[in-house]
Amino acid sequence: MRLPVDAYWLGHGVVVEYRELQHDQPMAHFDKPDILTVSGVHRGEQRALYDARRDTLIPQNGLRLVVIRPADLDGDSRGRLRRSRDADLAAVRRILEPARDEDRVVGAFRHWLVAEGWTPVAPTDQWTDIEAVRGDERLIGEAKGRTKEKGVDADIAYGQLLRRMADHSPATRFALIVPTSSVWHAERVPAQVRRLLRIDLYEVSDANQVSRRPA
C-alpha cells in the first residue's frame, strides 16, 4: 500500500511531513473512536500505524524524513498557527539544516565494528574519528561524509591517516571510511599502495550498510 506524504523534493532526497496535534495525542473529533475503518481500527490508531510506517520506510529508501509539528512554529497551545511568516520561515530553516553526514558515516561504522567483534575505545589522538580494538588488533579510522569536494576530502583523509602512523605494529591497521558517493575518489590511490600502508577502505551506503572494498 502506498502512503501519501505532505511534500517530497526528489532533487534533495527530502520528505517533509507536517503533523498536527492529532498525530501525537488522542483527539476524539479526529480519531472517531466509535467508528472503525476497513482496517478494523479507528482513525486515530490507523493514523499512528501509517506514521510509524512512514518513519521506517522513508529512511530505508535513502530519503531524509523531516517532521514539522505546530510546536515548532508560531502557534498556540491548541496547535493553531498564527501564520507569522518570518518566524515560521526561520523555524523551518533550522529544522531543515542537514545533520553532518560524517556523523552518520561514523555511527554506521561504529555499529558495524561492534557486530564484527571490535570494541570502540577512546582515540589515542584527539583528532581521530574512531579507534577500536579486537584482541591484539587495533584499528584507527578516518571518516568523511557526503561533500561537494569528494576528491579533495579523500586526499585530506589519506593525509590525516599518514600523520597517525606512529604505530608500526603489523597488528595496527588504518581505515578510511567514506560514503558510496566518495568511493571512486578514494580508490584513486592504488590498491597496492593502500596494502603497503595498511589502509583498508570501507564504504557506507546511503542505507548505512558497511562493506570493505577489495584491495
What is the strand and helix layout of this fold?
Blueprint: E1 7-9, E2 14-18, H1 28-31, H2 43-60, E3 64-68, H3 85-96, H4 101-115, E4 119-121, E5 130-134, E6 137-143, H5 150-163, E7 172-179, H6 183-186, H7 191-196, E8 199-204, E9 210-212
Parallel strand pairs: 2-3, 6-7, 7-8
Antiparallel strand pairs: 1-2, 4-5, 5-6, 8-9
Q: Could you explain the architecture of this structure?
A:
The protein has 215 residues and is α/β, with parallel strands linked by helices. 34% of the residues lie in helices and 21% in strands. The protein is built from seven helices and nine strands. It has helices at residues 28-31, 43-60, 85-96, 101-115, 150-163, 183-186, 191-196, and strands at residues 7-9, 14-18, 64-68, 119-121, 130-134, 137-143, 172-179, 199-204, 210-212. The strands form two sheets. The protein has a six-stranded mixed β-sheet. A three-stranded mixed β-sheet has the order 1-2-3, sandwiched between helices. A hairpin with a 4-residue loop joins strand 1 (7-9) and strand 2 (14-18). The longest helix is centred in the N-terminal third of the chain and has 18 residues, at 43-60. The protein is elongated, with a radius of gyration of 23 Å. The chain starts with 6 loop residues before the first strand and ends with a strand.
